[in-house]
């Protein structure tokens, strides 16, 4: 009897010790950091056994049983079921409310940097535009019951600075319609939708056409577009909450066939690029364009909502999904226009030389 107990105890101990390794091999998948890198295995720090299962249990319990937000610092939930990014990423909430702003030292640094970039581009006959996509918090500030601090936000500070040093600053929300029922942002995602993207394009062209009066441009209107819905899309904020509820994402497309033709990539993806390699570069040629201009765009995830309008407007378009002000790329491409697009919550990257 004693021998049976001992054997049973040993078997139980071995089973307990083996469970994590079995679970790692059966349940945990570690995706590659980049498409061309080897997969990482046994990454216990980030992918411990049952991580996703435990997180789902936690979030479901907090949401459905306690009826509270499981991660309020990452995601803010409002009474009308809209969701906003919290302060966990780039102080998005506090910056939109003016609670966190640029310091005098940071503004001096920004001034020197932007003047240098403007002068460097001017020497190469390149027109320079900084285009900022407003945070969802900024456009729908009334949904978040936190009072805005009575001073300029980082977005407004940057706008004022650019006016002072004569750098083209485009507030991509300037053409957003006021006082109607047009939905401009996804309810459960940090990004805007197709309508906002179209208005962002219009705001951009209002500036560009003023500087290139000798050139002709196709002017697209909302009636040239057709709205469609992307079904069963889970917003990134819902994804953070491990909420599988989907949302209908609104996009726009041309009613007539697009004339621009996508070209083969020509640039080398930088080492350590933060995204999938295939997303780094897009280039188009449109021989039907009314001008012979070439635009180079450094951008983030907001630009794809209106990139098709640029590819249809300009003779040559090169879109680089990266915030780096890459002088080597500019020298290679030799554009007429350098369009630097960034979302409001990421304006601090301008301080990173």
From TrEMBL:
GO terms for cellular component: periplasmic space. The chain crosses the membrane at residues 7-28. It is found in: Periplasm. GO terms for molecular function: transferase activity. It comes from the Bacteria. Pathway: Glycan biosynthesis; alginate biosynthesis. The keyword Transmembrane applies. Keywords: Alginate biosynthesis, Membrane, Periplasm, Signal, Transferase, Transmembrane, Transmembrane helix. InterPro entries: ALGX/ALGJ_SGNH-like. The keyword Transferase applies. Residues 110-252 form the AlgX/AlgJ SGNH hydrolase-like domain. GO terms for biological process: alginic acid biosynthetic process. This is AlgX/AlgJ SGNH hydrolase-like domain-containing protein.
